[in-house]
Specification:
Layout: E1 2-10, H1 14-23, E2 29-32, E3 49-50, H2 59-69, H3 76-95, E4 110-111, E5 121-122, H4 128-141, E6 146-149, E7 152-159, E8 176-183, E9 188-199, H5 220-227, E10 232-233, E11 238-245, H6 263-267, E12 271-273, H7 293-307, E13 312-315, H8 321-327, H9 329-337, E14 347-356, E15 359-361, E16 373-375, E17 380-381, H10 394-414, H11 438-455, H12 462-485, H13 490-511, H14 529-532, E18 537-538
Parallel strand pairs: 1-2, 1-9, 2-6, 9-16, 15-17
Antiparallel strand pairs: 3-5, 4-5, 7-8, 8-9, 10-15, 10-18, 11-14, 12-13, 13-14
Helix pairs in contact: 1-4, 1-10, 2-3, 3-10, 5-13, 11-12, 11-13, 12-13
Bound molecules: flavin-adenine dinucleotide and succinic acid (SIN).
Amino acid sequence: MIYKTDILVIGSGIAGLRFAIEASKFAEVFIVTKKNKAESNTNYAQGGIASVLSKDDNFDLHINDTISAGAGLCNHEAVELIVREGPAEIKNLIEIGTDFSKRLNGSLDLAKEGGHSRSRIVHSKDLTGKEIEHALLRKISEINNIHLLENHFAIDLITEHNLLSPYRTLSSKRHCWGAYVYDIKNSVVHTFISKCTLLSTGGLGQAYLHTTNPGIATGDGFSMAFRAGALMANMEFVQFHPTSLYEEKMNNKSRTTAFLISEAVRGFGAKLRLKDGSEFMHKYDDRKELAPRDIVARAIDNELKKSGEEFVYLDLTTKTASEIKSRFPHIYSKCMEKNIDITKDYIPVVPAAHYACGGVVTDLSGQTSIQNLFASGEVSMTGVHGANRLASNSLLEALVFSKYSAIQCEKQIKNSVTKIPEGIPEWVDTSTISTEERVLISQSRREIREILWEYVGIVRSNERLNRALRRCDIIYEEIKNMYNMSKLSEEILELRNLIDVAYLISKSALIRKESRGLHYTLDYLEKDDKNWLKPTYMQNLNI
Ligand code: FAD
Ligand code: SIN
């Protein structure tokens, strides 16, 4: 089937939904999302949204904290934009019914997290993402010109290289006119033709063996954009959250998601301890447990390597049971399910892949290097996070850039720079065999996740990265053959995306010859401002 619409949104997390609400003011919007509508990284966000809302805080402090965490690579204009727009976005969320936690006097309860010089994290206890996602979905359901299609998996963007001859003219400027989307329930591919397209497909944590990200985070948007020739940057800066729950079955490789123990727990006073009960963060940073994430994750990694242990402890037991249960009800009950009573027991924790700071390059209005293709949320590289994201800045960035992307779309549609050409073909299914060999797909997926975890993790080296790339090359060829022959399925589509993402991260990491922020390599231990105070760009020009 062919759908023609003003705007196509790919993904229904905070970025896609916020954008759709804004865009619906001037256009018809289709949202496609590959699972059920709430399933997203957004839905699992715990800590909250950073914003300047208290009297002892100001924009400059938030801007400086963000830039300081970003280790020299933030785009100051982008940082300033999200910080200044923050309070209005929080107000907007409250107006559509988001129930943020409040103090007894009725003011918002502002929490503290690593790298923040003030308490400024707006939250809904420890289930902030779920509360926001549901408020946005409720709002979307009230808007007639937004159509949300679940179980619709975007395969590839439609650009010049898809056009049929004689319509196919390859100018230097590439354009996007929608996407091919696999309708999972009906096993057919639809052609979505749109004037503007927003890529809001979220993260890529599933490329790593241990991750806080849910199963949807297979890097589809990064891979689609790269295949279409979009400019990408900073893919080496993968953030590892210091504290995911350690479980004995960690080494059971079928486990896909690690449960997060929010940074807000450390903000609430929890201490990190070694197995013998001693504290160690003072050896690494004056801010101890509240140092930025790259520092805390590396400190834990270092202690684990020195001791040979599999986890460190997080200790919240200095707080009263009622304080803990009322502030962190979700973490309390999840840990209780594992027989850990966090009001009395130390919590075993380890770092896990959490967030992609790099992605599809955009300008301040969300425009990518491909005309009429916008990107917002975790898939984008707006310049806000630089080499390391400050805690709770991600939801904020998604809100602000989605709003500005929608404003820019309106201008482009009005100025008719979004004219759709003749010759967009429907999807041609050339596959011959059905994918009975699911075991091969799951085996390749596991291999990719292990390769990134072992060789492209918290501590890297040229040898490890080269090894990762050599392994990726072999798996890439195998997947390409499998993909070309197999009937479409979510599994094969995700696998194709994961191998692209594995390549992008490993290659980008090898290009950057210094240690900065989240990228730490044994071959170049120091920051090199003379040569590397710049993003690491990658672009696929072979199409
Ligand atoms: P997502 O919310 O992940 O949404 C992506 C959407 O795209 C999903 O609907 C998905 O199904 C869909 N999709 C993906 N691929 C396709 C495809 N091929 N076709 C169709 N649909 C597709 N950040 C903060 O600022 N504060 C926090 O407290 C915080 N806590 C976090 C806790 C956890 C456990 C995790 C994992 C992350 C946390 N983050 C937090 C990060 C933050 O949640 C994410 O970066 C943010 O939610 C990303 O929003 P998004 O809209 O870009 O992507
Ligand atoms: C957390 O709650 O620790 C996650 C916050 C974030 O990723 O910004």
